[in-house]
Specification:
Blueprint (H helix, E strand, L loop, with lengths): L15 E2 L13 H13 L4 E4 L13 H11 L5 E6 L3 H13 L6 E2 L8 H15 L3 E5 L7 H9 L3 E6 L10 H9 L5 E3 L6 H8 L3 E4 L6 H12 L3 H8 L3 H9 L2 H11 L20 H17 L3
Helix pairs in contact: 3-4, 5-6, 8-9, 10-11, 11-12
């Protein structure tokens, strides 16, 4: 494992890609195809690979966790951060903590739990995971009801949180009272826009977030990197123009299952073959594949044009 220190100041070196995981027909891990995708991302300038929802870590088996993390570390360069996920339930994350610690991972993201929960219980569980892991973690917020902003501020003050992946969806991302409450409690530098290219410009320009995650950037990593460069340079017109290339695939993802669609879009782009989706998800229905493949190939061609 590269002895990298997780520093929040480094998080805008590139977008944070959130890739799917390639599997064989028997659902075992496919190192060859995962390696193809990782090399494609690294060649496009991506420095952060965050394995969470798109990788369906929600449903991954604890028995393969160490194998998964070792594979990802072996396949990536020393300049790449691999950010795996834990949870979402308390029992699973506590079993994963010693594996992360043994493999010397610099950070991990706590998947948001949906189920019986109280705010005091959530805070207690996050502290216990933090103590067991011994390093600051990414907090993943997907809904306004998940965690009180005061608790986020408390965990930040205790130096348990490295960053917050913010992914509460809004029809108008500029109109977000919950996000404004969070930012009243926690400095904006802690926040990563967590819903891809669509709200990224607003989140970074109007709310001062640090960077953004990208799913479609798994097909067009250079495009995502160029969007972030334009944002950091204040070239909002260029950022918006580049973003338009991502919207057709994002529209398909938002109309269906974002995880399912990205999984099969990567296969359709010919970058790597992702294989079967991990249950409880499924692959895209065959009748929808031609349109998805066409969209994915257009995005891949756009990415290739940026190398010319």
């Amino acid at each position: 494992m590269n002895p990298i220190t997780a520093r929040r100041a480094d998080l805008n070196l590139s977008p944070l890609a959130v890739p799917p995981v390639a599997r064989n027909a028997d659902l075992s891990l496919n190192a060859v195809e995962n390696g193809k995708l990782i090399r494609h991302l690294e060649q496009g300038g991506i420095r952060f690979l965050m394995y969470g929802g798109n990788a369906n870590f929600y449903q991954s088996q604890l028995s393969e966790y160490a194998e998964m993390l070792s594979m990802l570390d072996d396949l990536s360069s020393d300049q790449t951060w691999i950010i795996p996920s834990v949870g979402p339930d308390f029992g699973k994350m506590m079993d994963q903590a010693p594996i992360l610690k043994k493999l010397n991972y610099p950070t991990a993201m706590v998947l948001p739990y949906v189920g019986p929960m109280t705010q005091a219980g959530l805070l207690d569980g996050l502290r216990r995971f933090s103590d067991a892991f011994g390093k600051p973690f990414f907090l993943y917020i997907k809904s306004d009801e998940y965690i009180d902003p005061r608790h986020v501020a408390t965990l930040v003050g205790e130096e348990r949180i490295l960053a917050v992946k913010y992914a509460s969806v809004r029809s108008d991302p500029s109109n977000d009272p919950y996000l404004r409450r969070l930012l009243e409690a926690v400095p904006a530098e802690y926040f990563i826009s967590g819903i891809g290219e669509r709200p990224a410009i607003v989140h970074l320009r109007e709310f001062g977030m640090n960077s953004f995650t990208t799913g479609s950037g798994c097909i067009a990593p250079r495009g995502s990197v160029e969007i972030l460069k334009a944002i950091l340079a204040g070239d909002w017109n260029r950022a918006a123009t580049l973003r338009e290339n991502f919207i057709p695939l994002e529209d398909i993802r938002d109309a269906s299952s974002p995880i399912q669609i990205l999984h099969d879009a990567v296969s359709g782009s010919k970058i790597a073959q992702m294989g079967p989706a991990l249950p409880f998800l499924s692959n895209t229905p065959p009748e929808n594949l031609p349109a998805l493949t066409e969209t994915a190939l257009r995005l891949a061609a756009f990415n290739q044009s940026l190398f010319a």
